Description:
single chain
Amino acid sequence: MTDMKRHFYISRLLVLMLLAVTTLSLRAATPTAADIMDKMRRTVLASPAVEAQFTIRGGQGGIQGSATMHGAAFTFATPQIQVWYDGSTQWALLESTKEVSITEPTAEELALVNPFAIMQNYEQSYTMRRLADSNGRSVVQLTPKDKTSAILKVVVTADKDGKWPQELVVTFDDGRAIDLYIDRISGRQAPPVSTFRYNAKLHPAAEVIDLR
């Protein structure tokens, strides 16, 4: 082999090696769907509790609401409904009828009332796929593993730092969708356990219906 050919093959080998390293680096720098969800979960777990203000968008304008989460427990409130969940029992107060239903919901039933609950069990209940986004945001689609689920898919968009969820869009099998945009979310000190339990003294006119 002549020196010219030897230099040619060496140069070509170096170029191929450089391309391989560059490709691996780009792959490593691009987070997977699991990476995106795990980063948000780590942020949530780093705080004793999480507090959020949100807007449910769609229809005529938006519906304002708030939520507080501490582990599996949460409170969720809009002008139409208030929900308390202490990790096993759920109380849901409908403002229109002043009725409080008491249940012991499944993970899917929790998600139907409080979309934030999806963030608690996504690994067990959903398959994950990263979606492309023209704005450079981190977007993940969650598809229920249970084919009989009333939820068709959930699309989670992270904020610009990838630490907190910014938007959750839940699409149901009948075509309905809930678009929950998070206006503000942050960590906070854990509130008392009573925060996540219904207090009948504060709602004396409400009728309690025990469905357990």
